[in-house]
Amino acid sequence: MDLTALNDPDLLLGLWRGTIKCYEPDMRDSWDWKVLVGKVWETHGVTVAMATPYIPSSFGRVPRNPAEKINTGYKAWEYLLYIFGLGPALLRSILPEKYWLNYCKFVRGIHLLYQLKLSPEHIQEGHRLLCEFHLRFEGLYVQRRADRIHFLRHSIHLLTHIAPETIRAGPLSCYAQWIMETAIGNLGDEIRQDKDPYANIAQRGVLRAQINSIVAMMPHVLLSERDATRIPHGARDLGEGYILLQACQPTAIDVSGPEADAIMALWEAKGWPNKDRWPRAVRRWARLRLPNGQLARSCWNESRSLGNLRRTTVVKVSYTFCAVDCSIFAEVQYFFRLTFGDEVHSLAVVSVFSSPDCNLLHQSFQTVYACHYQGANALLAIDIKQIQSVVSMIPYFKVTPDGELKTPETEYFLMEKMGLDVTLLLGEEEEDEGPDEDDMYADELR
After folding, report:
1. Could you tell me if residue 123 is inside a domain?
2. Does one domain contain both 150 and 57?
3. Domain around 137
4. Cα separation values, 206 from 177, 189, 209, 264, Å
5. Residues 303-330 pLDDT 10s
6. Which of 155, 174, 193 is the last residue of a domain?
7. pTM for the full model?
8. Neighbour count for residue 300 (Cβ, 10 Å)
9. Among candidate residues 123, 150, 174, the one where a domain is terminated
10. 149 and 241 belong to one structural domain
């Protein structure tokens, strides 16, 4: 995966920018794929940078403007988010269709295989897409020409071995280079003295292996310093890894008409009592810690923030529609709780994004999920435990052939964090950078 995150993006960008070596009798002017040049390349770089505020902080380091920073230490994780997250949507209006479609096969294949848990169907589909990408890559770019044989790097051929090696050796997360480097770094940090460092780190490795074996056999036993039962002051442990975090309004505040309708629809569907006695007011909560370690914030929280937070209000929600389980994407307006005697329900009001452009989703091999934000016209009340993860919805910026930028009004495209289940192996939680509680509800107390 490390080679895929660096070598293949470098090759593709070198082709599209026309910076890769060219040997006679080949000529760069004959390359119809060389489109990331001049003003188009500069504007495309701007669209990548403009996506930064919409990418949650749990996604890690965001890609910088490639037109300015691609040659100044662009990191592997930046390439990963750029090429496999932003690229399919942002490059659609730039790349000729045949090159874009082949690129989407590459992205989809990597998405399927870059997971901790893989089904046989995912492995088969991922292998098929990467093999088709490899074969089509030769036909589109190399074209059986000896002067272009250097286009076909080893990393391209390596793609056809990912699925078979996954079957033989397990998911890539078990032996990827950066996973190994992280483990070595963690073991090195545990060394308390510099005497016999190699023997010391070897013993730390043995101890780590023993602890991992015990945890695998008895997962309910806590052997780490991290106490799963410890929660921040004022928070509410909802069970199953969900923790509701401050700030919280000290008194119930009236909700809007559409919000009340959404809450009442859920109230009636659940058959809860006393619906006629509800004063149409709730105490809003600001943040929610998810079982995967991500932090979901509400629009109520971020609108009162004193800093420039990266947007963490858009979530993936499990939802049942017409007896069919599916996933929808929505922006959290706020969290709240309803109490009926000893029975407490933790809920959220969300604004649901529209259904995706099905034709584009199919054409792009499931890599471009384009939809529209519907605001107060699509409010829904849900149980907090229906929230699965924090995702990114980015305005669908488009670059014209002349290099002009088109900014959409309501159209967005989806980006989920690649390998989210892999990052759970680190056992880390997103840092809580929320504002002070007093600042949060000072206006409600006036």
Report:
1. yes
2. yes
3. 2-174
4. 20, 15, 5, 57
5. 877 666 789 999 999 988 766 788 999 9
6. 174
7. 0.85
8. 22
9. 174
10. no
**Do residues 396 and 247 both lie within one domain?**
yes
What is the percent of the chain where pLDDT is above 70?
A: 87
Q: How many domains, the chain?
A: 2
Q: How far apart are CA 317 and CA 195, in angstroms?
A: 52
What is residue 442's predicted lDDT score, i.e. its pLDDT? 41
